[in-house]
Design a protein that fits this description.
By secondary structure, the chain is an alpha/beta fold. The chain has helices at residues 4-12, 21-36, 46-63, 78-97, 154-171, 195-218, and strands spanning 107-115, 121-131, 137-143, 177-182, 187-191, 252-253, 264-265, 275-278. Strands 1, 2, 3, 4, 5 and 8 form a six-stranded mixed β-sheet that branches. It is globular.
Length: 281
């Protein structure tokens, strides 16, 4: 939805992207908040959480050694120290927004997957799922950035209703509450969905998949310029910056007589994955 051409670069061309300090810090903070709930309730304190940060950073480096490039040339370790300190600040702020001694999550980093009647498969990873004694479900997502202004709240709300739709189709339960915890600004955004909201998101996803399918068949992926373009790793191959995209790797053939002229992929790629996935910090 942000940029069809960026989708192509990431999903079809699989162009590499450099890790960023902000995204990696978000991954680190998520890992700390997940692991904190391994401890007994009384031990879920801010000092305990801060103490988890170095170990979780080491674990990230083990699984993704390329992250060490973030601090290349930082011989004295000053940048790394400052970066870890920023992660500590985000973790500390969480304790002013929620009390983990009073929470017992039913799920953490929960992978969910379901298939709609249309055959479209939805996947996602939910940061935290809380279930009240009454059975009511709350979906919680941590954001290490700042809360968006109201006019820009549609994207994070779409993410949360996506999760709610998957839970509804998977478990037959409409989550009672969707909760976004913004550690960067100390805000908590909540939304209580109803069935009509989830049905609306389902229709939007089907329309989105149809747009993806057509673009995949025709190779017509349009850039969608926004203020975020300045942060994109693919400016060198983006027409908006004077670049030329790589040769389209999928086979495209002219439409058969009587077709609508959109074109169709060749048989070698005709079964390209029919799934929409959503996850991330």
């Amino acid at each position: 939805m942000r940029c069809p051409l960026l989708y192509r670069f990431r999903v079809i061309d699989k162009l590499p992207e450099k890790p960023s300090e902000a995204a990696t810090r978000g991954t680190l903070v998520h890992a700390v908040l997940e692991r904190l709930f391994d401890a007994p309730a009384a031990d879920r304190t801010a000092p305990k959480a801060r103490a988890l940060i170095p170990g979780q950073w080491d674990r990230l480096l083990e699984t993704k050694p390329e992250l060490s490039d973030l601090f290349a040339g930082d011989a004295e370790g000053e940048r790394l120290t400052r970066w870890l300190g920023e992660a500590e600040q985000l973790v500390d702020r969480w304790f002013s927004l929620e009390d983990p001694t009073r929470l017992e999550p039913a799920e953490r980093e929960m992978f969910v997957e379901t298939e709609l009647e249309s055959g479209l498969r939805l996947r996602g990873v939910i940061d935290r799922v809380d279930i009240a004694p009454s059975g009511e479900v709350r979906i919680v997502d941590y954001k290490t950035g700042k809360a968006p202004r109201p006019e820009y709240s549609e994207e994070p709300l779409f993410q949360m209703t996506f999760y709610a739709l998957v839970i509804w189709r998977l478990k037959g339960v409409v989550p009672r509450r969707l909760q976004l915890v913004y550690l960067g600004s100390g805000d908590v955004m909540t939304y209580d969905p109803v069935v009509a909201d989830l049905e609306r998101v389902e229709r939007k996803l089907l329309a989105l998949w149809e747009a993806i399918r057509l673009a995949t068949e025709t190779g017509d992926w349009r850039p969608r310029p926004t203020k975020l373009c300045g942060w994109c790793d693919h400016q060198a191959v983006c027409p908006e910056f004077g670049g030329t995209p790589p040769v389209y790797p999928l086979s495209v053939r002219p439409a058969d007589a009587g077709e609508d002229g959109q074109g169709r992929m060749g048989p070698v790629r005709a079964e390209a994955g029919r799934a929409v996935a959503l996850e991330g910090p």
